[in-house]
Amino acid sequence: STADSIVGWTSAAFREALGADASYHSAAAGGLAVALTHAVVAGEAGTRMSTIAQTMAAMAPVQTFYGALSWDSSGVLQKPMYGKQRQGGVDVVVAPEGDIIYPMQKFEVLKIGGVYNSGIGFRGKAAFDFWAAWG
Fold first, then answer.
1. Is the distance from CB of 84 to CB of 115 less than 8 angstroms?
2. pLDDT at res. 88
3. Is 41 left (phi over 0), alpha (psi -120 to 50) or beta?
4. How many CA atoms lie within 13 A of 15 on its CB side?
5. Are residues 91 and 28 in contact, defined by beta-carbon separation less than 8 angstroms?
6. Does the pLDDT of residue 114 top 60, yes or no?
7. For residue 113, what pLDDT is reported?
8. C-alpha to C-alpha distances, 68 to 1, 16, 28, 107, nearest whole angstrom
9. Burial of 86 (0-12, 13-18, 19+ CB in 10 A)
10. What is the DSSP track for 65-111?
11. Beta-carbon neighbour count of residue 54 at 10 Å?
């Protein structure tokens, strides 16, 4: 996977560091931590924190282990969300475009943005703690 130029995380390094806490949610938080680091480095001394939102909106997409991340001027993440459905034992992308099977067969699973139909768990704090301990 892609490693950014400042923090240097790859997907494998992130999964290894977080162990059982590595999840879609912690990866999203970790990707944000990488992008924040790039914005702080890109900012002007003395105003980095007060202008971080503007810096992030103006930056080119940051290449992270989580993908290329960028934000618009209102702070909305510009990264598509995909949905997968298990069909015949294979994960198939069904959103934003694809053929979803409804009703789902028994034991088939729908996954949208890391959320399975059986529930989710929070792992973002582990990613933030990992980032906070870095550097």
1. no
2. 80
3. alpha
4. 8
5. no
6. no
7. 53
8. 12, 21, 11, 33
9. middle
10. TTEEE-B-TT--B-----EEEEETTEEEEEESSS---SSPPTT--EE
11. 13
pLDDT classification of 134: cutoffs 50, 70, 90: low
> For residue range 42-97, what is the model confidence (pLDDT) as tens digits?
988 999 889 988 898 899 999 999 989 998 888 888 887 778 887 888 888 887 78
* Structure tokens given for 125: 């704090």
Interatomic CA distance for residues 79 and 73, integer angstroms = 14
Q: Which two tokens stand for residue 129?
A: 């703690």
Mean residue pLDDT across the chain = 79
Between CA 54 and CA 48 the distance in angstroms is: 10
Identity at 14, one-letter amino acid code? F
- What are φ and ψ of residue 10, in 5° steps? -115, 170
Query: 């480095």: which residue's tokens?
Result: 41
3-state secondary structure of 117: coil
Tokens (6 digits) for 106: 């028994």
